[in-house]
Design brief:
With about 475 residues, the chain is of the alpha+beta class. It is built from 13 helices and 15 strands. The strands form 3 sheets. The protein has a 6-stranded mixed β-sheet with strand order 5-6-7-2-13-12, with helices on both faces.
Length: about 475
Amino acid sequence: MHMRQLSAQDAAFLYLESRGAHLHLTSLNIYDQSTVPGGKVRHKDILRYVESRLHTSPIFRQKLASLPFSVDYPYWVDDEQFDLEFHVRHLALPEPRDWRQLCILVARLHSRRLDLSRPPWEMYVVEGLDNVPGIPEGAFALISKYHHAAIDGVSGQEILSGLHSTTPEFESDPDVEDWEPQTEPSLLGLLTRAAVNNIRQPFQLAKAVSATLPGISQSLLRGELPEITPDNDVPETRFNEEVSPHRVFEGQTFKLKDLAAIRSAVSGATVNDIVLTICGGALREYLLDKDELPGESLVAMAPINTRIATEKGTGGNKLAMMFVPIYSDVEDPIARLRAVVEATRNAKETRNAIGARQMTDLTQHIPSATNALAGRLITGLGLGHRAIRLCNCTITNVPGPQQPLYFNGAKLLKMTGSAPIIDGMGLIITAISYNGEIIFSFTACREMTPDPEKLPAYTLKTFKALRKAAAAT
């Protein structure tokens, strides 16, 4: 595998890391091992299985090679000392081995920084899920961590596919060649590449700007670009302070068909609109409980995939951001859904007018030193929560496979995950669908959300109210 250079967007997830914010994604998968021949999976079986799947993504055996003073973006290079047993670890869930203990374990593992001197991923096999409701005896969990510089939600789904099969029976690919790592590049070689890249960059930036400006100009003429007025339209909440290094994690499961059925209540509504509406209601209830509900609507940042077909399997990040109100100030659930549908429709029209792909491409030509300096200023000076406030939280909806998947023959029962939070955005809600279910998971700073169990409870309450109102519409 040839070495690959990180894009500006990938590298930003390295530069924005701080003591309180480690920017990796964590997945939680729960498996039923009764589908395995013999009904039992041993740790060495999992090691052998994962090893047979390492070829499905380059990130498994590649580490970062950085340049001094960030004179150019880092590269992914083969780890000549790659050790699978360092990355795949074995744990047992503490007593009483219930859902709460599993959530605490996910939060603790998620709060620890990845070792960036090695390929930036870890996998924990967790046994002893004896008292988790709805989970059969003998089930085990897989908690996996991947740095955000290596993957986004979509490339994470590609890794998921590479590690799973669609039947309990699986065979190793006979055409896969034995892995031979390439020699790591020398510092002189990397500096030579940096010199060439820094000569090219101004010309590439000029080309990207010239391609993007016509779309922005047309949008301005049509009055389609919203005014960016940070702080004025985004209320201050407990989620907009500096985050601590400590995390909490919780989740709530729904049937995907139950959310889809609500769409008929408002013309043009999508499942994503339903997700935003439920989140708006749940955060309304939570802040009411704290006597902290602002008079204005909370605003969520929603990542948008801009990956094109030719970039499938390349890893990294291809994201644009959409900022949408979630109408936490609206009590009536149908009125909230109607307002969300209108807001997302306008946001999508603006995004299409500018071209989310063009705007994403524009960021790729920012010099590395500038990007690194910006990251240090944002984290070191607290610009993320003191100087500017663009949103209150992040809400991301990740559609997953809708057929059963198997890991080493064990059936995947549930799939959810935890995502990074940063200063000024101390709450992220991920909605991941799989095999007819959708799980809302909540990752937050422990100091901001000391009672995380209330978030899934209010999510369920909001869903029931929205479903009842939709049925009466």
